[in-house]
């Protein structure tokens, strides 16, 4: 890392490839568009990348910047197999009314993501 960012990078909690679609923006429904996304849980945020090579915050803003990011404070998670024909789907709703579906073919993997994100949300409530 460069000297001016050393020591201030938030802790990287988890990173991996999930399928993602945004289904609402500010409470307004959007048309689904599933895409693979490199998802990084870091500090209070879930950060989405197109490029799996940029998960390390020390490389930001390197050759691939985040596509978008989500503030987990006040966010809500729920299993959402009713919202998709896909299996292993959960919905993440931000406090601003943005909604995402995240999905993996691997049940254990999506469960681990759910648990880890929920832990961060819970931790933020008590701060
Ligand atoms: O919940 P929906 O609207 O049935 O979701 C499906 C559609 O959005 C479809 O797109 P178009 O209707 O724009 O062609 C997507 O291709 C599907 O992937 C969506 O359903 P799943 O079950 O994959 O979430």
Task: Please explain how this structure is put together.
- The protein is α+β, with helices and mostly antiparallel strands and 127 residues long.
- 15% of the residues lie in helices and 37% in strands.
- Strands 1, 2, 3, 4, 5, 6, 7 and 8 form an eight-stranded antiparallel beta sheet that branches.
- The longest helix has 19 residues.
- The chain starts with 11 loop residues before the first strand and ends with a helix.
- The site of (1S,3S,4S)-1,3,4-triphospho-MYO-inositol (I3S) has 6 residues, from loops.
Coarse morphology: globular
Largest sheet: 8 strands, antiparallel
Which ranges are low-confidence, i.e. pLDDT below 50, for 5 or more consecutive residues? 1-6
Give the strand tally: 8
Q: What would you report as the Rg, rounded to the nearest angstrom?
A: 15 Å
The number of helical runs is: 1
What bound compounds does this protein have?
(1S,3S,4S)-1,3,4-triphospho-MYO-inositol
Helix content, binned percent = 10-25%
Structural class: alpha+beta
- In terms of DSSP E residues, the strand content is 35-45%
Mean pLDDT: 87
From the N-terminal CA to the C-terminal CA, the straight-line distance is: 29 Å
| H and E order | EEEEEEEEH
């Amino acid at each position: 890392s460069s000297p001016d960012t050393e020591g201030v990078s938030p802790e990287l909690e988890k990173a991996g490839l999930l399928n993602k679609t945004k289904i609402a923006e500010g409470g307004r429904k959007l048309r689904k568009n599933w895409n693979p996304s490199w998802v990084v849980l870091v500090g209070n945020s879930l950060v989405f990348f197109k490029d799996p090579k940029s998960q390390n915050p020390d490389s930001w803003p390197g050759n691939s910047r985040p596509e978008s990011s989500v503030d987990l404070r006040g966010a809500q998670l729920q299993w959402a197999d009713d919202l998709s024909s896909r299996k292993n789907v959960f919905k993440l709703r931000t406090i601003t009314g943005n909604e995402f579906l995240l999905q993996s073919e691997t049940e254990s993997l999506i469960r681990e993501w759910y648990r880890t994100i929920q832990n961060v949300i819970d931790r933020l409530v008590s701060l």
